[in-house]
Write a structure and sequence with these properties.
- The protein has four helices and six strands; from the N terminus they run αβββαβαββα.
- With 167 residues, the chain is of the alpha+beta class.
- Strands 4-3-2-1-5-6 form a six-stranded antiparallel sheet.
- Strand 2 and strand 3 form a beta hairpin.
Length: 167
């Protein structure tokens, strides 16, 4: 009986001290291949009205929406009278799952799951918001870290190839 009490108190003490903290998750981890992983990046130049939404699924499907239509940011928008309702471009492509794992791993390594705080050198003319789930780690944040911000901006530019609109 005494051994059980001592072992239980040792486990409780270990939890209290912090050697094993169930409430702490490491923001840097190894990404595993899974069709359940996904990330969605919203990129917007502040002076303009152009919005780009990039979604990458763990299965390799990449969807890009861009334009000034309310449908770019909200698939269920209800304002067809909006002057820019028709200004939307959609594209979809499939990339190998291993490339998706590499993209997700780079995002994790660059601090995607580290808490974002406003900094003096945070970009102010380009807004990037990210939401997603990678290996049961979730994120829904506006990105202030300049390095991660630049990395996400490059990722959006990689898949969103602007095309000239025909009149």
């Amino acid at each position: 009986m005494k051994i059980a009490i001592i072992s239980l108190s040792t486990v409780a003490l270990t939890l209290v001290i912090g050697c094993f903290n169930p409430f702490f998750t490491n923001p840097h981890f190894r990404v595993e291949e899974s069709g359940l992983n996904w990330i969605e990046v919203y990129s917007k130049q502040i002076p303009g009205a152009q919005l780009t939404r990039l979604r990458i699924d763990g299965s390799g499907i990449v969807k890009v929406r861009s334009g000034s239509s309310p449908l770019v940011g909200d698939s269920y928008a209800k304002d067809p009278a909006n002057a820019s309702w028709e200004d939307i471009r959609n594209s979809q492509l499939t990339i190998p799952r291993q490339e998706v794992v590499q993209i997700f791993q780079e995002l994790v390594n660059n601090g995607l799951f580290v808490e974002q705080k406003m900094q003096d050198d945070s970009p102010s003319n380009h807004l990037i918001r990210v939401s997603g789930n990678i290996d049961n780690h979730t994120v829904n944040a506006i990105i202030f870290d300049p390095v991660l911000h630049e990395h996400l901006k490059s990722l959006v530019m990689l898949f969103d190839r602007p095309r000239r609109r025909l009149p």
